[in-house]
Structure formats: structure tokens, C-alpha cells
Amino acid sequence: MNDRVTKPRFARIISNLYQSQIVKTIFALFLMCLLLTISRPNTFFTVKNMFNVLRQASVNSLIVCGITFVLITGGIDLSVGSVAGFTSLITAIAIKSDVNVFIAIGLGLGLSLLIGFLSGALVTWIKVPPFITTLAVMTTFRGVIMVLSGGQPVTILGDTFGFIGTGYIGIIPFPVILMFLATLVVAYILKYTKFGRHLYAVGGNVEAAHLSGVRTSYTTIKAYMFSALFASIAGMVMASRVDSATPLAGDGAELDAIAAAVIGGISLAGGKGNVIGGLIGALIIAVLNNGMVLMDVPVFYTNVVKGLVILLAVVVDSLDKIKKQ
Prior knowledge:
The protein is 77% helix and 2% strand. The protein has helices at residues 2-19, 21-39, 47-72, 80-96, 101-124, 130-149, 159-166, 174-192, 194-204, 206-211, 216-242, 253-263, 275-294, 300-324, and strands at 154-155, 168-169, 172-173, 244-245. The strands form 2 sheets. The protein has a two-stranded antiparallel sheet with strand order 1-4. Helix 3 crosses helix 9 (194-204), helix 4 crosses helix 11 (216-242) and helix 12 (253-263) crosses helix 13 (275-294).
């Protein structure tokens, strides 16, 4: 009797695992690592290179942590790269002006929340489409960066600030620890808090969510504020890693973040996805970039391959939706 009950239950567990987008993404990551280990056995699968891959993934993963909030609501945030560049530049200018480093970081993070609030307010209160809103914010602040910096990097930011991007705790780089901590925090928020449940409700059906008592505007604005906040943290990591806030910092970061999110199973249509999948997607992109460098593939082919990977992920997601209908 027990065997007859246990076997179907076991079969359902296996079936659920097979259908899980996260499991599929983990398998894709494992397969990529296996192929690169076979083709580059002495250079890819080494402790030094594994930490290098994690370092490369950390900035993108931090941005993914924030943009996940917006994508789940059914929106999009193209401004994350500019927010990362702008707030890290403001922080760098403040540090160079002898402002306490922690106050300078707080200033940058505070400005990011203000920008996120502005984007969310335009989307919810003025009803400007998210694509147009965040495209305008992206363009505006990319221009502000050039005006404030004069096209020149702000350098020599000091050891305290530098620890964010280059420090270690034990043998583990601090950005890697920051990446995993941020992912765990976001995963907790999405799964165990009222705000997380409201995000999925808004992304699933905003009208139904509103009728159910969800404060949809408040939820959406908070999503954009979180997106900007995590983008700012990623910008701090970028600036501290090279001891310089450069005018082009974060340029194109939004594309990598959206790519990682899509690869990780976060739907662009909203209402579906998990930040763990986004983390794995960021690792896949980092492994892809690292592997192509190790194989001496010209850099301009990287975007071609990345675009095909994104297209494949979207096609797979669309086919899954068609099967469920």
C-alpha cells in the first residue's frame, strides 16, 4: 500500500523538478561549465577563475536583484545602468570633496531611491508607459553624468570605499558575499512578505489586484525604488573595483540585467519569476563572457551569442505558456 502511494508522489516530485525553470537554468549552467572545462581544462575550472567568474557576475546580479521587482509587476526599467553610473559618480565627487565615505555612500543610495520614486510615480500616477519613462530617465541621467564629470573619471577614492569592490572576507571577495546576501534578502521579500505577494498580484492582473485591496500604485513605486537602490549598490561596486567613477560606468548594464532575468525564467509579461533564477542567469552570462575570452573569441561576437541565448530563453518560455493553455 505504501509503495503504491509513494511512487506516484515521487513521480510528481520528479515531474515538478523537470518542469521547474530554475532546474532547467541550473542544468544549462552546468552544461556550459562542463563544456568549458573540457575545452579549457587548465584555465577555466580553477579556483582563481571561478572567483573571477563570480566577481564578474556580482555587479549584474545586484542589478538583477532590483530589476526583478519591476519585471514581476509587468514593468521594465531601462534606467538601471544610468542610475548606477550617476549615483556612483555623486558618491565619488562627495568623497573627493572630503565628505565622510559612509555619508557619501548614503547620499548616493538616497538619490537612487529618489530616482526610483520619480520613475514609479510617472508610471503609476501620470500613466507614462514604463519603457518610455525609464528610457527618458536613462537618457537624462546619462547626460547629467557627462555634464558633472566633464567626460573625465573621478579617481583615487580611498581604501575604505575600495573595500566594497576589492576587499575580501576570508578568501571570498566581498562583492561575491554581497551578491549572495542581496539575492537571499530579495528571495525572502518575494516569498515571505505581503509586499512580495502584492508584486506578483500586480504582475498577474493589476485590475484584479486593485479590486482585492492591493495598493497597486504604492507597490509599483516601491518596485522601482528597489530597482534603483540595487542598481546604485552595483554602481558602488563598479566604482570601488577600479578606484574610479567613470562617465561610461553602467552603460549597457540594463541589457545584461534583463538578459539574466529572462534566462533565469523571470517573465517580461509579469507575475512570474524568482530572483534565484535571475542569479543563475547572471552566472550564465558571466560564464559565457569568461569562456569566450578564454577561447580567444573576438569580443564583438559576444553580443551575437548573448542575443541568441536570450532569444532561446524567450522562445522556451513562450512554448511553455502555449503548452499550459
